[in-house]
Design a protein that fits this description.
alpha/beta; Metallo-beta-lactamase, Chain A; globular; about 325 residues
């Protein structure tokens, strides 16, 4: 397998001079098997350029695309209406997410193309959409991939995905808070709330289940939105730090951690310093820590035919090639 990052930001897109090298688009990762099958994980604004690439490959022919959503916050769905293959008649787009019912997911995704927000309603887009509810702990397969959803700690819920294929495994863990100070539920938190004994038990169980599902993964892509000093101010926002991600990866015996869902306020220079600092911290604990940037492709497991990752600002992967 190979994974490619099309959007690495959290919250909202931040194109501009300070984010040229790491990129300003929001969450979207593509995974491709050695046989060429692919999945899309999250549909932030990075999905637009990915869609252009896939539409170029399709050369006008309809395809079947599978989109796994962690949750439906803006930075994970905003690219969907701008996904070019959706405008090729006969195309099928299967969307998977954690919601109480597939019908509700239909309404949420349909909602972002309401007339107030977008000129064309979902129902009249040429592609057909189908919606699937996922459940933490209940595995399913899509072609060459086995997918295992994992419950995460985020306002109104979110799921990570462990994805196995080509005799290798990786996981996408975004968005999530750590599992100590705050338990996110189905209501807005204006600050940390006192934890009941039941809450504490739930957090311990959620963390243990996450570690268990990540065990032995080659690569884990993790929500590391905050630096520790930022997290201290906003522990109830539902995001983690690289240190918290590293602790989980060490416990789960993960080979490589990829920092992801970067805070929109972090400039390229700050990202360089975060990347260098956590590469060194990870090395001390036996985990390779990479910092994702837009256009980065990395092989999962042993896949010598795939390109090695390049550094931001230095390689052909910096800017995804978008057909004109
Ligand atoms: Zn997010
Ligand atoms: Zn979120």
């Amino acid at each position: 397998m190979q994974i490619t990052f099309w959007g690495v930001r959290g919250s909202y897109p931040v194109p501009g001079a300070a984010t040229v090298r790491y990129g300003g688009q929001t969450s979207c990762v593509e995974v491709r098997s050695a046989s060429g099958e692919s999945l899309i994980v999250d549909a932030g604004t990075g999905m637009r350029a990915l869609g252009n690439k896939l539409a170029g490959e399709a050369q006008g022919r309809p395809g079947h695309y599978h989109v796994l959503l962690s949750h439906v916050h803006w930075d994970h769905i905003q690219g969907l209406p701008f996904f070019s293959p959706a405008y090729i008649p006969g195309t099928q787009i299967s969307v998977y997410a954690l919601l109480t019912a597939a019908d509700e997911l239909n309404q949420v995704i349909g909602g972002i193309t309401r007339a107030e927000f977008f000129p064309q309603p979902l129902a009249s887009v040429p592609a057909n959409f189908d919606f699937h509810q996922v459940e933490p702990g209940v595995e399913f397969t899509i072609g060459a991939f086995t997918i295992s959803p994992i419950a995460l700690n985020h306002p109104f819920g979110s799921v990570g995905y462990r994805i196995d294929g080509d005799d290798a495994s990786w996981a996408y863990v975004s968005d999530t808070a750590p599992f100590d100070q705050v338990l996110h539920k189905q209501h807005f938190l204006s600050g940390p709330e006192p934890l009941s004994t039941t809450d504490q038990t739930s957090l311990v169980a959620m963390r243990a289940a996450l570690v268990e599902r990540l065990r032995g993964c080659d690569t884990v892509v993790y929500d590391t939105h905050f630096l520790p000093e930022e997290y201290a101010k906003f522990p109830h926002y539902g995001h983690s730090t690289p240190d918290q991600a590293l602790d989980i990866c060490v416990e789960a015996n993960v080979r490589r951690l990829v920092l992801y869902h970067h805070a929109p306020s972090h400039t390229d220079d700050q990202m360089d310093s975060i990347a260098a600092s956590y590469l060194a911290k990870g090395a001390l604990r036996g985990v390779e820590v990479l910092t994702s940037f837009e256009g980065m492709s990395i092989p999962i497991g042993s896949a010598p035919s795939f390109d090695e990752p390049t550094r931001p600002g230095t390689g052909v992967h910096d800017v995804p090639q978008v057909p004109k």
